[in-house]
Design a protein that fits this description.
The structure holds 2 protein chains of 2 kinds. By secondary structure, chain A is α+β, with helices and mostly antiparallel strands. Chain A is built from 9 helices and 10 strands. Chain A is elongated. Classes of the chains: A alpha+beta, B mainly alpha. Chain A: It comes from Digitaria exilis.
């Protein structure tokens, strides 16, 4: 750092506020510590062009995400709606993101079932085309993958399905292809005596890539229904993995 | 040869004595001298740690020409206070992986330490912390400055930091429309 950059001019009158250090590295360190609320960076960007340039730099945004990892606020939640997952914001203004900004519209004449939202992504079962869709509500980016062959033998309207998204890298924003999808489904009504349960583990990197699909025995169904698996939400994915592990 | 040997021994003894001192002397840009705990300086500043390890610490006051006496006094005060406080596990881990570590709240005494500073002294201290590679002090001072922006509109932030608005009206309007939701309460 040059000596001149360290010597900031003192305000000529007490009424004039002291200027911030004229140093991009220091400004970045300050911005990094802004609260991770949706309005923080947009508001700071409007202060001056220099700040906007620093704040919109993708490297800074990656650092900001990593810095506030696990401290990000809950922006809201999605509810299953016939027209597609509908976003309900939970924060107060100015951090309240409008529903329309993140809600997803199902394509015309497609039956979408909202499965879950994790890592800021939504997982959708498209019952019309028998596909699963992973969608980033912020960018609108989508990846589709055909559902496992076993699924297709059954009436998709009757199938009860739960799913979860998994990713090894939790700290940074990763491409959709890095995600894996775990699906757990039955082929009929829960009270059906001949009910069978299936689990699949997908790798989105492979198109239609079912890396494992198993037909589970009724013994496992007995255990699973004991755990009321149809009501399981957040633990669904670890259960699928547990089943996968037990099947070898 | 005997004399040379004697000289060598004396030099060696002086070096050992220097190494044994548990403080280092730092000299500000305006020539004022400050004593600081060697252990704390080496632990808290990567630059001072390098100088201590490399033997470039001057017994009569190591010149830090880029740091004024007020900022250096605060740096030394921080180091000495730090030496007297028991570092928490959170603090240690924060200094290890500073760039990617999740944010760690300043401890109560650190908060009080920066709260008593004027804006100008705080900004001088952040520059000194950056220059000396004092990650934790940079963390605490930058956190304090970022708190000064919390909940403020762009106009208010400009006022606090005496920043000139270099956007045209049209540019401002365009960005505000793009991110209208973030300005609902303005």
């Amino acid at each position: 750092m040059s000596e001149s950059s360290m010597c900031r001019g003192r305000p000529s009158s007490p009424a004039l506020a002291a200027p911030l250090p004229d140093n991009d590295d220091i400004l970045r360190e300050i911005f990094l510590r802004l609260p991770p609320f949706p309005s923080s960076l947009p508001r700071a960007s409007l202060v001056c062009k220099r700040w906007r340039r620093l704040l919109s730099d993708p490297r800074f945004l990656r650092r900001f995400r990593a810095f506030h990892h696990r401290q990000a606020p809950l922006l809201g939640f999605f509810i299953a709606y016939s027209g597609g997952p509908y976003f309900i914001p939970t924060l107060e203004p100015p951090d309240r993101i409008p529903s329309a900004r993140l809600s997803l519209d199902a394509p015309y004449h497609k039956a979408w079932t909202f499965l879950c939202c994790r890592h800021g992504l939504t997982l959708i079962l498209n019952r019309t085309d028998l596909e699963i869709t992973v969608c980033d509500p912020v960018t609108g980016d989508q990846r589709c993958s055909a559902i496992p062959p076993g699924f297709k033998r059954h009436d998709p309207r009757l199938v009860k399905c739960k799913g979860a998204l998994l990713c090894d890298d939790h700290a940074s924003r990763v491409p959709l292809e890095a995600f894996k999808v775990a699906l757990l489904w039955t082929d009929g009504l829960q009270l059906d005596t001949d009910l069978q349960m299936f689990a699949s583990f997908y790798n989105l990197r492979l198109v239609c890539g079912v890396t494992s699909s198993q037909h589970l025995s009724r013994l496992i169904i007995g255990w699973a229904s004991l755990a009321s698996w149809l009501r399981i939400r957040s633990t669904g994915c670890s259960m699928v993995l547990g089943i996968m592990a037990s099947l070898g | 040869m005997e004399v040379d040997k004697g000289k060598g021994e004396a030099e060696e003894t002086r070096k050992v004595a220097e190494a044994d001192r548990d403080t280092v002397t730092l000299k500000s840009s305006d020539g004022k001298l400050f004593e600081v705990s060697k252990e704390a300086a080496a632990r808290l500043s990567t630059v001072l740690a390098g100088m201590i390890a490399g033997g470039s610490i001057d017994d009569n006051g190591t010149d830090l020409k880029q740091i004024g006496s007020e900022a250096l006094e605060n740096v030394v005060d921080y180091c000495n206070k730090h030496a007297n406080s028991i570092p928490s596990a959170a603090l240690i881990s924060s200094s290890i992986s500073f760039n990617t570590a999740p944010f760690k709240e300043p401890e109560e005494w650190e908060r009080k330490f920066v709260d008593r500073l004027s804006h100008d002294a705080l900004f001088d201290l952040v520059e000194a912390a950056n220059f000396l590679g004092m990650e934790r002090l940079l963390d605490v001072t930058c956190h304090k400055i970022s708190e000064m922006m919390k909940g403020k509109s762009p106009d208010q932030i400009r006022e606090v930091f005496n920043i000139k608005n270099d956007y045209t009206k049209e540019e401002l309007e365009e960005i505000r429309q793009e991110l209208a939701w973030a300005f609902y309460d303005d």
